[in-house]
Amino acid sequence: MNETMVTRSRNRAVALIQSSKAVYLGTHVRPDGDALGSLLGLALALEGQGKRVARLSADPAPQSYWFLPGADGLSCEPPEWPAEVGIVVDCDGLTRVGPLESAFARLPHLIDIDHHGTDQAFGEVQLVDSGAAAAAEIVYGLLGALGVQTDAAIASCLYAGILTDTGRFCYGNTTAESLRIASELVAAGAEPHDIARRIYEERSFAATHLLGVALTRLSPNHDSEIVSAMLTRRDFADTGATPSDTEGIIDHLRSIGGRRVAALFVEVEGEQVRVSLRSDGSVDVAEMALSFGGGGHAMAAGCTAPGSLEEVRDRVLAAVRSALSRSNCSHAG
Ligand code: 5GP
Ligand code: MN
Asked: Whose CA is closest to atom 22 on ligand 1?
């Protein structure tokens, strides 16, 4: 989107929000730091403007985000009261809200706030910028347009979103704008040390044990350009870990030198496998995830695919190998 289009969409979003009394906010299934930070920050801001707000998430927040203001007010079911406007953050399609989809689809007005390159536009207003490192950056811009004074609670939520989606300001999506906004959020009261400690340094024993199991399953592939690991349902039972305890494991795989793609395969209920993919930029993993029914960003994407662990792993790794071979050929030629 060019600047004029961004301004126009933002103005339309502001007009819709200002004319509403009640708003449903939603985000994707298995919410991460950006999903939660964007939703909770926006919720506080809208409540500050006198609106009634529902914080909707099909899945609960992982424990490491319980400290975020308003995280205890998340609900997996729409409230009994109606709303004029729905705002869905960090979702590259309305289906990403999972079982809440129909609750959002029947609202009179819907706003899509997202930063995925794979965004399939939904709703009547799209605030979509694939150049933003986090949906929280876009929310911050919207709050400015709404004339919201960012207080410490709002700032903490949005800072958590940017911190996690930039991998602590280390990933390739980190821009001057990400750092500028983060700096303004800190000036508004977000505490970088405290937020980082709560998200990254209070891992449970079970989650750390699960990480250990994943690391024993490391397997190099395609001349070590691909590093992958698998976790079975049995691993969760053995360690006592929960599904959200897989967060962060992929970062250990992507930190291996020389690797171009990292892949984590996690067996989940119903003969399905959760796949997380990370790229060093030489291949677009969002494209790959999209072909398996998922989505994401060029360097970080995911999907849930049907089949056994081995079947899904073989299919996905074959796709990764062929993308890497094509990229090697095009660089050689
Ligand atoms: P992760 O591997 O951390 O679960 O996800 C990495 C990125 O891919 C995130 O931006 C996330 O939103 C996106 N992603 C992960 N799984 C899915 C999926 O099943 N569908 C879609 N559309 N995006 C996904
Ligand atoms: Mn995000």
From this structure: 295
